[in-house]
Amino acid sequence: MKSCILAVLVCGLALLRAAHAQVSVTTSRNDNMRDGQNLSETILTPGNVNVGQFGKLFSQPVDGYVYAQPLYVPNVSIPGMGTHNVVYVATEHDSVYAFDADNNTGINAAPLWQTSLIDPARGITTVSSNDVNCSDLVPEIGITSTPVIDITAGTMFVVTKIKDNGQFLHVLHAINIFTGKDQPGSPVVIHAQVKGNGDGSVNGIVKFDPLHEAQRPGLLLVNGTLFIAWASHCDNSPYHGWVMEYNESTLKQTAVWNSTPNGGLGGVWQSGGGVASDGTYIFFATGNGSYDGPKGGSDFADSVLKGPATSHLQHPYDYFTPYDQGTLSDGDTDVGSGGVMLLPDQGQGAPHQHLLVQVGKSGSIYLIDRDHMGRYNPNNNNQIVQDMENAIGGLWATPAWWNNNVYFGGSNDYLRQYTFNTTTGLLSNTAVATGTYSGFPGPTPSISANGTNNSIVWTLQVDNYGSNGQAILHAYDANNIATEFYNSNQNSSRDQPGIAVKFTVPTVVNGKVYVPTATQVSVYGLLGNR
Q1: Helix%, strand%, coil% for the chain, nearest 5
Q2: Is the pLDDT at 9 greater than 90, yes or no?
Q3: For 373-394, b where at least 16 C-beta lie within 10 A, e where not — what string?
């Protein structure tokens, strides 16, 4: 059996090496910078993304809500089924699917493979919303975060939440992307503890609580290390923010960090946005909770944090905390509701070579030097590069970047486009263009372009997720988002994607747009081009 698995893996990897020139989407927001860009899209253009030429091609049913961003790998050799471009979909029913990405005819009418990571016959099920006393995720909780794929290893890493005969667990799986089977050494149950006297501590130890913790942010894989982050369900205490590191080859836990070991809360939420990395450091944001960083303490709620991507995270290397942290925390106006996005490295003569942007529930845009993040100033935020207070609707999303433009999908606000000045190193003081709709939550935009040409901003409108309404796919001119090329309501009888799920993100790659919903993944492209 082991030799058969090895043969499948070797054959599959050979095909994937031949496909490296093609575009893959293997992580949340397309890359570890979390900028949402696909700059190698040569099929979809402003000239053909319109209701006459572009629309829904087909849908594939799934067994649970899809919060995770679909992932995509071209030219995958599936045993006994040939070679396919594959879209991978994870659900709250703790299933992972591999679908042919281009059509649903013939053998592609069914999944290429489907893996269930529960076993009800043995008492292993998903977790219900009632179990966690929270209706944020309904009716069940299984896989919520976006997995990550290592193409070279042929492995997808997935975190599940399960109920095993009454015991609540989070489980890390390493799944073979060719077969859907667990790789050797997989799965592992996640446990963690740190020293501290915070909420839920016993005898100076804070233990990871698998019932209260929610694994929402997308997984990060960098330098052979897997980073996994947690917050909670509905702010139901006791909980803390956790960031854990695992060796991707051995699945051995190598480090654990807790955001509030001597207090409480401080979750890493980011509305599903993944922990970001520039290859040397990781960056993430925390929500409301305990804070004593300036006093030399260990509690870092309502902060944007930097840690090493190459060694163990024990204490933040650097951080930024807004001057009004206490007010934000008391008002549940989290800094960490939005995901951190890293800007491309600027030239040697730039005022700041390494920047990030982050927005929380207050709608204040923080532009921060990644090399000198500013830490805490009790009087104002003048220590960071740029602070635009209440500039947009609160962000339950991650911004996107393209060609010196930043796109923010604020809550109950219009999609807003800001420009970045490479000479001054600053964002425009106000938006240069706005989109066509507003609602809660705002969208996480995605970009398709052929370099600096044929650029499109894609969003999912999901403001009617609470009433089982349809999601709406939108496409805008990235040069001026006031111009809308397409939306799926223009021909709703043909193009409806399915029931909306909040915080969802479309994946745009190789001429297709993959839209996750409550019951299916819908595939859009040029009509007649399946």
Answers
A1: 10, 40, 55
A2: no
A3: bbebeeeebebbbbbbeebbbb
